[in-house]
């Protein structure tokens, strides 16, 4: 189904969702959550501003739009907007413009303001009063705003990039620094253009920080409507993990390793600081920030979110829907481990594959099923297939593409997750509702889901096992322990059902967000009142 984009009508909505790389084009936990939210509040109208990378990867939608979505528009942040030229030729272009005296208004004052705001952003780690975010909003969306064209035609742009380059370590290749700065800032001008034609809404709700969160900052400044953020995973942390693995920044050109680990070089550090800055500005302007669990909340505080505007609202699943597919107490447990998720590095599919080789040695008829798209990182997916072949597991580990969870759970014995980063995975909760224990890595809120949070929750029992990341042996050991003992598996199943029914029913989640929306939509809305309501 091709996207329905209503660029000329743009009807107002109660809620405008700002979505980066999720619903309705990409399947996954966050997209499932978005769908839940929209369908769970049929009395409210929603519009969607979707931010993607490139149009070529967004030909069809993964989900049909619910009836109460009145508008969808798509924007692609990595589509080229100007002819790409080398820095030396760009300087020549600037000189040609400069030679035509009086033909173009100087933007020196705007670039001076831009440089001053960047200095404040570096020096003020909390950005507590939002003044820097407001300054950037005015600079990008005000009556005399900087534009992408200015970035190509103004001497001030060249001077700014050269000045920043002088702060970099000696020996850093200028071409790579130049294109790093250009690449990270170009999408911001797309966001500024979006604001000029954005659909009206009572509440703008971003489901991340990053570019979508900064779009919320700009919309908040331009419209004075309420702006809230919900984070499932921590955007800046996930980008750090992504950047640690990319190979488009040549290590040989930058010997000055800084940042997350020995493989992180200076340009990666520039990107990380950029995303961290977007996050801090998003937090500073949001009326309220919502998160899934305490670990995320503590990270958000470190990253600059104000404690008095942070509230935990856990995920929820449709318990009634999955209750229908629970197996009978005396039914056999299939020796099948299912990983439901995208085939991408952050899910660490390779550890699951290696673990299956060990599981198979203990349970000869065990199988590992992978349900999820393979087109997001085709190189990684190809490597996973090759690993399966090289280990002789083609008859054991099956790539099954997309599957409906309620059809998967009756056929498996364990829901598994080998991710190196997560928030509060819906697939684990869905498995619980279907009576399926889980083995997960110790990421995000997984330990809370498996073992419980407080004494009352913990008294329900352990719903599976939690193991360290990237440890195939311990992962396999935990899976074998559950599948080899029907009594142990049954106790884990009972704990899983009791926990999801007590704490993670989607009706509770939707009711709490509905209260938040109503508070923000009311003329006398109060962040303190919204916090108490949630």
Topology:
Layout: E1 13-20, H1 29-40, E2 46-52, E3 69-76, H2 87-99, H3 108-123, H4 131-141, H5 148-153, H6 155-166, H7 174-196, E4 201-206, H8 210-223, E5 226-231, H9 235-245, H10 266-285, E6 288-291, H11 294-302, E7 310-312, H12 319-323, E8 336-340, H13 349-362, E9 367-371, H14 378-390, E10 397-401, H15 405-408, E11 414-417, H16 426-433, E12 438-441, H17 446-451, H18 455-458, E13 464-467, H19 472-483, H20 486-503, H21 506-521, H22 527-533
Parallel strand pairs: 1-2, 1-4, 2-3, 4-5, 5-6, 6-7, 8-9, 8-11, 9-10, 11-12, 12-13
Helix pairs in contact: 3-4, 3-6, 4-8, 7-8, 7-10, 8-10, 9-10, 13-19, 16-20, 21-22
Describe the structure.
The chain is α/β, with parallel strands linked by helices. It has a domain of 186 residues: Glycogen Phosphorylase B (Rossmann fold, 3-Layer(aba) Sandwich). Helices cover 48% and strands 13% of the residues. It is built from 22 helices and 13 strands. Strands 3-2-1-4-5-6-7 form a seven-stranded parallel β-sheet. A six-stranded parallel β-sheet has the order 10-9-8-11-12-13, with helices on both faces. Strand 6, helix 11 and strand 7 form a beta-alpha-beta unit. Helix 4 packs across helix 8 and helix 9 runs antiparallel to helix 10. The two termini are 37 Å apart.
């Amino acid at each position: 189904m091709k996207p329905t984009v209503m660029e000329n009508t743009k009807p107002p909505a109660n809620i405008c969702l700002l979505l980066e790389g999720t619903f309705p084009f990409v399947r996954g936990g966050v997209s499932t959550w978005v769908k839940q939210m929209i369908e769970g509040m049929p009395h409210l109208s929603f519009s969607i501003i979707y931010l993607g990378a490139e149009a070529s990867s967004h030909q069809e939608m993964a989900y049909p739009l619910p009836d109460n979505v009145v508008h969808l528009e798509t924007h692609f942040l990595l589509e080229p907007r100007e002819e790409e030229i080398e820095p030396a030729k760009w300087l020549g272009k600037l000189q040609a413009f400069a030679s035509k005296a009086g033909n173009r208004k100087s933007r020196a004052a705007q670039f001076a303001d831009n440089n001053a705001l960047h200095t404040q952003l570096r020096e003020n780690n909390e950005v507590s009063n939002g003044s820097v975010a407001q300054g950037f909003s005015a600079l990008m969306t005000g009556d005399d705003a900087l534009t992408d064209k200015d970035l190509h035609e103004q001497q001030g742009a060249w001077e700014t990039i050269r000045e920043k380059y002088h702060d970099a370590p000696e020996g850093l290749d200028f071409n790579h620094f130049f294109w790093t700065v250009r690449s990270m800032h170009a999408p911001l001008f797309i966001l500024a253009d979006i604001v000029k034609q954005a659909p009206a809404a009572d509440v703008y709700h971003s489901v991340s920080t990053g570019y979508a969160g900064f779009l919320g900052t700009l919309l908040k400044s331009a419209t004075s409507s309420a702006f809230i953020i919900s984070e499932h995973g921590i955007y800046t942390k996930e980008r750090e993990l992504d950047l640690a693995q990319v190979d488009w920044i040549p290590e040989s050109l930058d010997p000055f390793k800084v940042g997350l680990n020995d493989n992180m070089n200076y340009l990666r550090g520039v990107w990380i600081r950029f995303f961290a800055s977007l996050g801090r500005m998003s937090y500073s302007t949001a009326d309220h920030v919502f998160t899934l669990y305490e670990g995320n909340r503590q990270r958000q505080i470190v990253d600059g979110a104000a404690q008095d505007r942070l509230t935990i609202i856990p995920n929820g699943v449709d318990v009634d829907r999955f209750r229908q597919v629970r197996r009978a107490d005396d039914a056999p447990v299939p020796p099948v481990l299912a990983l439901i998720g995208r085939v991408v590095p952050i899910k660490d599919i390779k550890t699951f594959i290696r673990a299956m080789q060990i599981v198979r040695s203990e349970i000869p008829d065990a199988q590992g099923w992978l349900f999820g798209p393979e087109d997001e990182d085709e190189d990684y997916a190809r490597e996973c297939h090759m690993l399966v072949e090289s280990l002789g597991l083609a008859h054991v580990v099956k790539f099954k593409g997309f599957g409906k969870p309620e059809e998967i759970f009756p056929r498996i014995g364990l829901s598994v997750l080998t991710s190196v980063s997560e928030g509060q995975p819906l697939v684990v909760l869905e498995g619980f509702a279907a009576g399926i224990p889980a083995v997960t890595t110790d990421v995000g809120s997984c330990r809370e889901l498996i073992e419980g949070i407080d004494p009352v929750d913990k008294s329900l029992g352990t719903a599976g096992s939690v193991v360290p990341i990237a440890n195939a042996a311990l992962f396999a050991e935990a899976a074998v322990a559950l599948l080899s003992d029907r009594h142990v598996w049954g106790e884990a199943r009972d704990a899983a059902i009791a926990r999801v029914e007590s704490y993670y029913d989607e009706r509770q989640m939707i009711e709490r967000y509905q209260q938040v929306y109503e508070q923000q939509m009311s003329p006398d809305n109060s962040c303190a009142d919204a916090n108490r309501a949630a």
